[in-house]
Input
Amino acid sequence: MTSKIKYCACATVMALVAMVSCNNDNCMGNSTGIPLAAFFNNDKKVTISNLTVYGIGAPNDSTIINNTNANQVYLPLRITQTSCQYVLNYNTEGIENDTLTFNYDIIPYFESRECGAMYNFKITSWEHTYNAIDSVRIPDPMITNSDVVTINIYMR
Amino acid sequence: MRTKRLYTIVACLMATLIAITAVAQEQQRKVTPVKPNTNKTLTPPKGTPEKIINEYLSGDTAQARAQERKDSLAKIYPHYPKLTEFSLGLNFGDLLMTAFGQKYTSVDLNATLNMWNRFQPVLVMGLGRAKDTPQDMNFTYTGKLSPYFKLGANYNFLFKNEPRYQLYAGARLGFSAFKYDITNVNIDNPYWGEYGNSYEMKGVSSTALWGEFLAGLKVGIAGNWSLGWEVKFHGIFKEKKNENGKPWYIPGYGTRNGNWAFGISLYYTIPLNHDRWPVKEEKGKNKQVKSNDQIAPPIR
Output
């Protein structure tokens, strides 16, 4: 009888240890919904030299990237307004800056215990100037925390 | 003249043939004598059921031998009745885990009908809840106390043994309709200088349908009480889509990250048709399971 109780207690403890150890605490995406814009030319991803990107109205005129070679850039959206604008400065003589404007809905979203609560965004419309940009395509207007390209910027 | 000689030869040949046949018949009788023992009375061994003895006496030997074969099989495969026992179990694994810091808990009652000590339909009904404010995270998750149900069956691999000891595999289909809150959300957007943004999602309703494969062990501990351990592999089949996210905790399923779960249950078992259970008979040191009314008579 006592040995039976020992076996039962042992099995219970082993089960508890297994239960405690079976946890997966990794967030595989970003901590909030954020669009990732990539630059294309004739459907090929291209790198833009000496590119500076900043948001109009960002505090202290802070930049997202500054005079950097980049083939893609994160464009964080505002969470207190449903529209925001970005300037793409090519730092090249003879090429004027381009401006991108996005209008969107803000959607509160709980992704997971590991990634937390965040905002997702649904792009409703967008505009841009045509200095170096040929067109902008957004295949899926839902912007989530997934680390994938969501905005395709086609250059001239 | 010739004809007379031919008749003589034929007559000699026939006489020779008759003589050979007679000798052969005489030799056969000597080689295989038939003993006239048909009137000998066979005594059945002690313990032979009267029904089988009567079948032999009535001349229905085919029936008696069929019964003998059935009985010898019953020795190897003891047959439990269709309704062998009924168990009520309390799964308290999650309750124990809350003592180790688990942020969710559930408790369920399961009813198991053991049929032939092999197939076991199972019905599970329980309640689950969750509350967690993870460190370094920006929310509080509250899973409101909600019910869940599971329906399934087990197959007991130790069906030849006593039902007190079971090793089984099974499957379940689970369902839960539940609500949860996401509160104390705090989101900062450093680039745009937007700090301290907050929102709440209260009473978000959801449903989930899932499946489980499990393996379990059940051991009698005292009287009609048993303890059981289960390891489960589960996956969500279908859940209600919600624009505002997915639930972290599903009552009866657990958290959505990971496919493995465990359960510990205390069972109380009520034996059914106990008089038809195979009885355990001890022969010296060797134990042998025999049926109550099935004793194989070695009549040949």
